[in-house]
Amino acid sequence: MRLALSLLALVCLPLSVRAQDQLLQRDDVKKALAYIEASHEKTLASQVTIAEIPAPTFHEGERAKYMATEFRRVGLSRVEIDKQGNVLGWRDGDMKDTFVLAAHLDIAFEPGVSTKVRKEGARWFGPGLRDDSRGLAALLAIAEAMNQAKLKTRQTILFVANVGEEGLGDLNGIRYLFKEGPYRANLREFISMDQSDPASIVTGGTGVKRYLVTVRGPGGHSYAAFGRPNAIHTAGRVIDQLADMEVPKNPKTTFNVGRISGGTSVNAIAEECSFEVDLRSDDPGMLDKIELKLLEAVRVGVEAENKARAESKMSVKAETKVIGDRPAGRTPDSNSLVQAALWAAKATGHTPELAFSSTDSNLPISLGVPAVTMGSGGKYGDQHSRTEWYEPENAWKGTQSVLLTILRFDSGVR
Ligand SMILES: [Zn+2]
Q1: Mean pLDDT across the chain, nearest whole number?
Q2: Half-sphere exposure in the Cβ direction for 49 (13 Å, CA)
Q3: How confident is the model at residue 168 (pLDDT cuts 50, 70, 90)?
Q4: For the residues 366-375, what does the mean pLDDT come to?
Q5: 228 CB contacts (<8 Å, ≥6 apart)?
Q6: Residues, CB-to-ion distance under 5 Å, ligand 1
Q7: Dihedral angle over CA of 408, 199, 161, 72, nearest 10
Q8: pLDDT for residue 18 is more than 90
Q9: Ligand 1 center to residue 6 CA distance, Å?
Q10: How many angstroms does the Cα of residue 406 sit away from the middle of ligand 1?
Q11: Ordered domains of the chain (ranges, CATH)
């Protein structure tokens, strides 16, 4: 019975599965995969070199220059740094249709941060060492492996080391590439390497909306002018409401007041207070909902402060400004890019899962361009903190998985 079943399975094997297996049997593919494995130490060294070049968001220039040199070294053609600061390098296929493979240049740290990398046992430490120096090093490893193995693809592949993924960068690098850049008309698919776990394939873009809320009031002496509305007190009233906001676990929805500033002295009624709010949800409708709640909390907070200090006949006002907007969305599970990524993860020995995150893929997804964010290998933790760490064991498998995803997808392109 068992035999019959498996025979049946064999007979019914869809054509695509056989084609996938053929892909793994191809000499050039084997050669490229072997090259990635053999270059493990080299890729790690390149990751460390990249990580040590500081690249806070809006200050990616030095790292971009380095990547441009590296893009030329690994044999990419027509290497350039575009108007936005993205580094582009091409590997031409038979078609003009272009598959974009990207990793981001910027790190989520302020200028002046020490990016020195250190090692303790099997663990390496450095701000941005995984996020996203691993992705950048993997870009080089993949381009080099493809050239060494003389791999040919139908689609053209555009390698991109992009700016502006983190924080207030608000995806400005990938946004430019897809919405304004000179090559936008030919860009068909997108992979961002911005994870490490090859088993986690991000197909859903968590939506993010960020606000700067600024409260302004009359100010005055804390004792002599007591009774006037206070900008910091107002901010407190708003934040208090936010802190109690109820959000669903599923779709995952979050809020955070991450930075606050204001006031001039302990004995002055604060004239100004501003704070930054980060709202996220895997569901666009839910994101709209909590955005409205934030705006309502601001209105209620201002009203409460002005009411409490009505006798002064003075008032505070609040201004809200959007400082970040990353659209939510999802590449359908049935899309051939997602299917290729799942297959590649399995082919490299992983048990893949589809996930949600906020990454550069949000942008192409919002434009209807199939996009996934993949891990280029290794383990990591403490992302966006100075104690960010990375463990490179078997990291090459993640890089192989990304290359196989491209090749698998490409083999199905007509
Ligand atoms: Zn990242």
Answers
A1: 93
A2: 14
A3: confident
A4: 95
A5: 217, 218, 219, 220, 269, 309, 312, 314
A6: 131-132, 194
A7: -60
A8: no
A9: 43
A10: 20
A11: 20-205+328-411 (3.40.630.10), 207-326 (3.30.70.360)
